Structures are given as C-alpha cells and as structure tokens.
From TrEMBL:
Residues 532-544 have a biased composition (Low complexity). It comes from the Archaea. SUPFAM superfamilies: P-loop containing nucleoside triphosphate hydrolases (SSF52540), PIN domain-like (SSF88723), Prokaryotic type KH domain (KH-domain type II) (SSF54814). InterPro entries: AAA+_ATPase, KH_dom-like_a/b, KH_sf_prok-type, Nucleic_acid_metab_PIN/TRAM, P-loop_NTPase, PIN-like_dom_sf, PIN_dom, T2SS/T4SS_dom. In the N-terminal section; belongs to the PINc/VapC protein family. Keywords: RNA-binding. Residues 1-115 form the PIN domain. Residues 545-558 have a biased composition (Gly residues). It holds the Pfam family T2SSE. This is Flp pilus assembly complex ATPase component TadA. It comes from Halorarum salinum. Residues 261-386 form the AAA+ ATPase domain. Residues 526-571 are annotated as: Disordered.
Amino acid sequence: MNVVPDTSAVVDGRVSERVEDGRYEGATVFVPEAVVAELERQANEGLDTGWDGIAELQRLAEFAKEGTVEAEFVGRRPSAAEQEGAGEGDVDALIRALAVEHDATLLTSDYVQAETGEATGLDVEYVEAEVRGRKDDGLAIESFFTEDTMSVHLKTGTRPKAKRGTIGEMRYVFIDDEVVSEEQMADWANDVEATARASPQGFIELSEPGMTIVQYRNYRVAVARPPFSDAIEITAVRPVAKTTLDDYEFADELRERFLERQRGVLIAGAPGAGKSTFAQAVAEFLNENDYAVKTMEKPRDLQVSEEITQYTALGGDMAKTADSLLLVRPDYTIYDEVRKTHDFEVFADMRLAGVGLVGVTHATRAIDALQRLVGRVELGMIPQVVDTVVFIEAGEVDTVYDVTTEVKVPSGLTAEDLARPVIQVVDFETGVPAFEIYTFNRQVVTVPLGDEEDEPETGVGRIAKQEIEREIRSVARGHVEVELRGQNEAIVYVDEDDISYVIGKGGGRISDIENRLGIDIDVRTHSERPADSGGASGFDAADGGARGGDAGGAGTAGGTPKPQGQVVQPEITSRHVVVRMDEHVGETVEVRADGEYLFTATVGRGGDIQVSRGSAIAEELEDAIDRKRTITVVPA
C-alpha cells in the first residue's frame, strides 16, 4: 500500500495513528517535500502546527527504522511564489501530483483537498480534522480567577500572580508558591488557543509569530512566545464590574448631554481606572434609549448586550471599519481605544461625518486627553471633534470638561489686536473655564487658568517669559534674564554692550517685539538688577545657529540701514534656509534684505548659517527671497 499524506494529515498525527493501529503496517509512505517546507515555515513563524507536524515526521522516521513502514521523501520544495499561493491551492496541487505519480492513496484532513482529489480520480482517504487540545469546557487557567480577580499573570520561571481588589484599589498578589515550568506554560498556552478555536464563544483576535490574542467569553488572553518574548507569558484579563450610568456622579447631567444630540466624547484615565467599564455603561444607556450603537475595538472585549454589534479592524485597518460603519450609519460608536495618530484621525473623520463618537484613551489628567489631539487634528476643529471630556479615576467620574471655541483675547493678555480663536475648556460642574488652548506666536499653548494669588506666574506668564527670552536673545550677544511684572509688563536684563542692539534705532526694535507679544518691556543692564530678583536665565545661541528672532527693526544698532555687504543667494531645503559663508566661519554677522535688518547670526563651523523653516526668522527671509529683495550679509 502506498500513501501520500498532505500537511493537514501530518499536523493532526493521522499517519502515526494508522501505523500504530496496524492499518498502515508494511505500507510505503511518500512524504512530499512540499509538506516539509510548509511545516518548516510554520515552525519558523512560531506556530504550534509546524512543530506538531515536525514531531509527526520524527515518529514516522522511528517507525521506518523499526521496519514497521517504509518512508521516503519525494517531490520538490515549492517555490516562494507557490508558498505564497498556498491558500490558492498551489501546494495542494503539488501533493496531488505526487499521489498520481506514485499510485498512492491521498491521506488528508482537508475537506477541499479531499473533494478535489476525488474529482481528479485519486484514491482519497479523508479523516475529520481533529481539534487539538481541550473542548469547550472552559480555560484551564480559569481556576486562578476569583470573584475579585481582574487579571492573571503567568510566565515561565516565575510564580503566578493576579491583580485583585476593586476598581481603583487593585493590588498584585501571588496565587501559587510554585514556580511555573516551561512545559506547564506550553500546556496552558496550547489550551487557550485550542479552546478559543473549538468554542463558539471564543475566537482568535490576533495571530502573529510570537503573539496570539484570544477572546473567550469575557476573558481577553494574550499569549506571548519566544522569540517575540524572552519566555512564554500569558496575561488573562476580565472585567470585575458591570455598571450603569446611574452608578456615576453627574449621571443626570451626562444622560441629558448624551441625549441632547450626537456628541464627540473622550473618556480618559490611567490604565485600570475603569474607562472601559464606564464606556460599557454609556453604550448600554444609549442602546436602551433607542440609539443604534456599534463598537470599534481591537481586541473586542467590551461586555455589552447582544443588540450592540462589536466590530474590529477590518483588514487590520480601523479606517476601513469606519468606512463600513458610515454605510451602516449608527447613531453612536464606541471607539476603544483611541491611541495612535491614525486612531485620532479616524475618530475625527467619523465625528465630522456626523456620527456620535465615544472614544476611550489613556491619559493621566483630563486635559491631557485634549492635548493628544493637538497636532493630530487642526486646532480650530477640536471642539467639533470632541466637545466633552470625561476623566475617570478609581472607577469614579472625577472631572467632566465642556469644550467650546470663541474668538477672544486670551486670558492674561490685553491688546485687542491679539484676539484669536481660543478653545475654552470649562469645568462642567462649576461652569468656570479651567484651560485655554490657542496659538501664541506660532506655537500652540495650553494655558491653565488659576487664581493669580495662588499662582503668581501663570501659564501665560511662563509662555510670555519664554517668548521674551527668545526674542531678546535674537539681538543680544550676551546673557539675558527676564523678570515678569504682572501679566503685561516685563523687565529684561542684558549686558551693557547689548543695550543699543536690543532697543534699536529710536526704540524701533524693542517696539516691534512689544507689539508682537503684547507686553511692555523695560530694558536694563544686569547691574541694575536687584540681588534678590528672581529672573529666568537665558542662554547664548549655539554655534552655527541663527541668533535672530523675527526682530524686524529697520536697521543696525548704529542707525541707518546700509545696502553694502556681501550679496548671498540663500538655499531653501526641506528643513532649513541656508546661507553659505565659507570665508567667515565663526564670525558674527547681520543678514539684511535691501539693507533692512533681518537677524543676527554666527557662521557655523561648516561655513553656513542655518535657519529652521517654520520659524519667524525663516518666514521673513523666505518672504524677502520671494519678493526678489537683495539679501546681503555684513559683519555685526
């Protein structure tokens, strides 16, 4: 009798099974090299099926040595293209061809392979694929869970641990005195994967070489294996509480807010704070009030009712899931969790399409959740994307923020021409603004609004001090210190030699800085600074960096602009505007446009001045270049 087993039969151990019960005694088993190649590939990827198949080949070799059967490896290894097309049937076709060539029975646990073989006239022995491992009688590691256990942590060579307690008061405890062996860990890991495959209540959420994530009933289990991890590790998590919106503070206000219209909500908090538990309560509340609710999760572990459909990343991409949901048109979608830039972009796209969104994100402060949107979503669109932030701490609603936008002068500034769009973050409980987010001198700043008596240097003050230092350092060669006197006044201390440079002709240079910042600045020498004054130290510009801010005074410290100097042709790269000055390495020079002062810089060791694009200096220089003004450089 001649037999050609395919990969499925070898993995399931069907050949040795038939040799042991006598059915294949004296048979010749032709093992296709295509099967060996496939098993090697699976084993290299860390898949158990590959290792099980190799173990079956080793048993077959032992039978051959004993003379029970004859074993021969035949055929050729599949090409890379054929292996990539294994799902299309390329490898199966090679195996069927060998069965024809050796006039052998094809042994398979693959139903499609069996049907195809019979259709082509082969003698086929089909055996049901066996589910290796436990049946659906639960996970072996479930015994570690008690009523107050949120997670179990197992790793080769360590004692098992669990996180137990109530939300906000969890603690790690040892749950066994014995160190776990590698063999035991492998058994538990195999049990997790086999049970998930066998049970209608389980599924494999993620399967990558070295990492498998399983959802089984209300357990989420992550199994890590070498070489991805240094040892086999199992982390099993389940929710320890299921709540309703009535269990939280501000329940009536939040209900009214959710029902008023579709909103953009971020639920924020530290890991383990109870964010997902609150999100589940919100989802159930919305569902009970006749809203169509869906979820976007990876992995899907929110414990919600059957009426709420849970979606994962379609084709590995949440953007595709979002596109599908926009066709389904839910009233609200729960997005668990919003973490990477791509997630925030998907969240914003769905929100701007009119879908109510409730996102779950990690943050240690309520304001941090909003700040994670900065740079990922256009600043002016943030209130349209997120109008409510709910911060969860120790399982309770700690803070709720209302997010709106208004064109106004930011708090702490007074000049009317400084009015701009300002995002106001208002404490939902008190109705008092807690933060403002806006663009200040081309930077996005988040400014806390506190009691000035409790906090003399406000967020605005800190930003103002930094900007004043930057501007003054652009024209001063020596040490710079800034001392704030109220929200709209400051004293700047510089070296005596720098006074004329900082003030400029007729006070023009310092007036420009004052107008840009909306702050009155008094320039003094360091000798005039009181000994106990608490100014902030400045620093000199690095060698080769432009020391100019956008100090747009009309001339040099000496007075009238001078057109003379070395004419240069700046080069604009993707990141810098570069002025080549090979013969002036280490010298301090002034860069001018049609004789008008732009900035002061020190020529770097490489013989050039580099100005970072996007800075105020670079914008003025690029504008001068675009207007075809003559750019000159003169010694400072």
